[in-house]
Amino acid sequence: MKMKANLLILTLAVTVLLPRLMAEEKDKLNGAKCPISDKAAKADHAVDYRDGKVYLCCGGCPDAFAKDKAKYSTKANHQLALTGQTKQEKCPLSGGDLNKDATADVNGVKVTFCCNNCKGKVEKAKDSEKLELVFADKAFDKGFKVEKTKK
Hints:
6 helices; two-stranded antiparallel sheet
């Protein structure tokens, strides 16, 4: 009888809690892609980067990322913003103060610019160019600050 009760509790835990935990992980990652493979990122394959975490798709990607962070930095910076680990402080193009009326979606991230000229430059660019304009290291350093993860 006790074994049946334990099995029932385990079954309930799996059917109720597992979907909830999976949804929380998905929400946390916000559809993030691995900067190495462009496959879905997973919370259990994370590496430290810029005082935050970059999520990868598998156990093989951390080594590839560590070997050439510069190659993957634009996508990694984008992922930091996408997963809510950053705070935007300035325009990533000019470094100027933010104008709440000059915002655009850049691959799932709401980005604010100093003016409509900067916003327009990004909106006219192709998707891969948008990422470079806003999330390449130089632009990222101008506009974003990573909020340190709690250990």
